[in-house]
Amino acid sequence: MKQAPILPSSGLVNTQIPFSSCFKPRLNTDFILSFKPLTSSPLPYKSPILNRIQTMAQGNIKSNRWSLQGMTALVTGGTRGIGRAIVEELAGLGATVHTCSRNENELDKCLLEWKSLGFEVSGSICDVSLKAQRESLMEKVSSLFDSKLNILVNNVGTNIRKPMVDFTAEEVSILLTTNFESVFNLCQLAYPLLRASGLGSVVFTSSVSGFVSLKSMSLQGATKGAINQLTKNLACEWAKDNIRSNAVAPWYIRTSLVEQVLSSKEFLEEVYSRTPLRRLGDPTEVSSLVAFLCMPASSYITGQIICVDGGMSVNGFDPKNY
Ligand SMILES: NC(=O)c1ccc[n+]([C@@H]2O[C@H](COP(=O)([O-])OP(=O)(O)OC[C@H]3O[C@@H](n4cnc5c(N)ncnc54)[C@H](OP(=O)(O)O)[C@@H]3O)[C@@H](O)[C@H]2O)c1
């Protein structure tokens, strides 16, 4: 039977990684936490290399690189789907979160649930497609968080699916206002607060439709393409203020937004066949990336649009009979 590696001078056993890799200094705190002291060992811990690694790991924990403790966040559209998962992820990692949606009953229900979980989350009724309501929302956020905001997650977005030539002027206006104008304006309104926090992070919810053509989604795809470019521009324009700007770009995630289209078995089969991981995504698989992009651990990442798509956007030729 293969023995677990033993570090001779330290009296520590690592049950998870090979002996040779123990001496590569790494910042991963799990590395240190995976060492278990040998209770029977009489030797005190002496190895200078391991000492250094341990100090680095402890520094990581102390510096809160992997935490959102003490941070403030605004997440739009937090009562369902991806937005709700983001609210819970950020609050669970220590942030104080404000969110908004249009349905008062649903918002109140969520707020009660979050309170019972011990999350610090407050909420406003706000339709982000309306300028006056966006302004009230930001005033509320400013008064709640002492005119400082660390995190802005522009999550609200909607979709209307039809051939390009069939869009009415009203539908064009709904999609442009909800998916782009509101986002652009919320960034403008949040800017003084983000700057005042000294450590700001904006995360946009884009879509793979902003990269590749998806049938009947020409206008939604155009709004997400615009979000992608805004992500890059803000990264450069606001870097001087220590505000980072990134986007997450999901493929099909099971939420109320796509419930109807995914109720077709044939459609679902086509989605699976186009997705290397052969499944839909879960909202928590997007929220984990959003949280990472808000943490000090991602402090050198800005201007990036990261797909959360089970490999869909890199899938080229995948013949069934080969
Ligand atoms: N689900 C996917 O497969 C998928 C894929 C790619 C990208 N996305 C993007 O991910 C984001 C979230 O999508 P989702 O699937 O989680 O959507 P969802 O299930 O429809 O949830 C949307 C959330 O936003 C709120 N909301 C919608 N319109 C609003 C408005 N005008 N003002 C304020 N709040 C509003 C909704 O609450 P109320 O209705 O009560 O206002 C709800 O809380 C969108 O930007 C979407 O484009 C989703």
UniProtKB/TrEMBL annotation:
* One example GO MF annotation: oxidoreductase activity
Q: What InterPro entries does the annotation carry?
A: NAD(P)-bd_dom_sf, SDR_fam, TR
Q: Which UniProt keywords apply?
A: NADP, Oxidoreductase
| Gene3D superfamilies, sorted | NAD(P)-binding Rossmann-like Domain
Q: Which family does it belong to?
A: Belongs to the short-chain dehydrogenases/reductases (SDR) family. SDR65C subfamily.
The name on file for this protein is: Tropinone reductase-like protein
Q: Which organism is it from?
A: Hibiscus syriacus (Rose of Sharon)
